Input
Amino acid sequence: MSEENLEKVRAALEAWSRRDWDAALKDAAPDIVVDNSTVIGEWRGVHQGASEIKRMWKLVTEPWDRVEIEVADLIEATDDRVVVSTESRFHGRDGIELPGPTRAGWI
Output
């Protein structure tokens, strides 16, 4: 994977953590899909296209003061795809935090 593509992935996740959805999706494919079909919650489902994904991301982050996503691992899959293992931390109001980090995978 090129250093340029690696930086695009990192920049997108940093933008996501700032809730800058437009910057997070800047380099995404027009037919981007987020499959949350196994998630429990109101953001469950398959979300297609930037507008649906932004709406879902707002639902995920709305209850939290801060949500941070960090890259845990990158695995080159093809010339134009990479598997990204992430760790997320959810910081709520009044010092409430989810234990963990929460782990997820992105392609």
